[in-house]
Amino acid sequence: xxxxxxxxxxxxxxxxxxxxxxxxxxxxxxxxxxxxxxxxxxxxxxxxxxxxxxxxxxxxxxxxxxxxxxxxxxxxxxxxxxxxxxxxxxxxxxxxxxxxxxxxxxxxxxxxxxxxxxxxxxxxxxxxxxxxxxxxxxxxxxxxxxxxxxxxxxxxxxxxxxxxxxxxxxxxxxxxxxxxxxxxxxxxxxxxxxxxxxxxxxxxxxxxxxxxxxxxxxxxxxxxxxxxxxxxxxxxxxxxxxxxxxxxxxxxxxxxxxxxxxxxxxxxxxxxxxxxxxxxxxxxxxxxxxxxxxxxxxxxx
Length: 301
Fold this sequence. Notes:
- By secondary structure, this protein is an alpha/beta fold.
- It has two domains: 8-64, no CATH class; 68-250, Aldehyde Dehydrogenase, Chain A, domain 2 (3-Layer(aba) Sandwich), CATH 3.40.309.10.
- Helices cover 30% and strands 16% of the residues.
- The chain has nine helices and ten strands.
- It has helices spanning 21-30, 43-54, 78-90, 110-120, 143-158, 191-194, 210-217, 233-242, 277-283; strands spanning 36-40, 59-63, 68-72, 100-106, 162-165, 181-184, 201-207, 225-229, 247-250, 271-272.
- The protein has a seven-stranded mixed sheet, with helices on both faces.
- α3 (78-90) packs across α4.
- The chain is globular.
- The termini are far apart.
C-alpha cells in the first residue's frame, strides 16, 4: 500500500495479545483521532465494536458473518451448479464469510444434484498442505472451531437430519482437520440452518416453488451473500432481487467477489456498510457543502 502511494503515517500494525485485545479495541474505537472503523470478523465482536462506536456516535463498516444460501432451480445447469456449490462450500475449509452453507434444491432435481455433488467432492481431501501437497482443504483455525462444527452436525443428526458425507471426526495434532460434510433433510428449525458454521459443512433443503425458495433463503439473520442457478436469467434475476443479501450472484458461486466489487451485508448478523470498490471509498468520505453568495443581498429580516 505504501508503494502504491499511501502515506506511511496512515498505516499502522498493532500486534497485541489476546488478553489485551478487548481493552485495546475499546481504546482505539473510542479514540477521538480515529473517525471511522472498518471491521471484518464475527458478529459477536462486531456488536461489541458497534457498542463502543455508538457511545461517541462514530461511523462503522461491519462486515460480519454469513450463512449464504444457494438456490438451484429446476432448470439449472446441473454440472455448473454442482461445481459452484462444491467450491463455495469447501474452499478454505468453509472459512470464508461468504461460503455456501445452505443449498436450496428444487424437489424435481434434488436427487440428481445430490448424486452429482457427492461424486464431485468424493476426492476432496482434507489435511496438512505442508505434509501433503495434494491436499484440497486444510484444517480449521482452532480446536474450538472444530468443536463448534461438530456440535452443529451432531445436533442436526439428533434433530432428524441425514449425514450424506463425513463422519464428524477430526484429525491432526490439534484435531482441526475435518473432511467435507454434507447434511440432508435440514429444516429452518435446526440450529445448523440458522447459525454460521465457518467450517467444511453444507446443508441441503428442498423446495417446491420459487416463492418457497425465497422464503427459505431469507429465513436467516444473516444477509451477506447468496446465489441463484437457472438457465432462465430473467427468472433468476427476479429471485435475486428478492433475496435479502448484500450480493446475490446468478450462476456464480456465493464466494464470487471480483476485485473492486463492493461487499457487505444489509443488517442483522452480517453487519452493515460496504468495503471494496468506489462504495468502499465513499464509506470513508463525508459530504461537505460550501456555498458562495453574491454581494448586496437584502435578507427579509
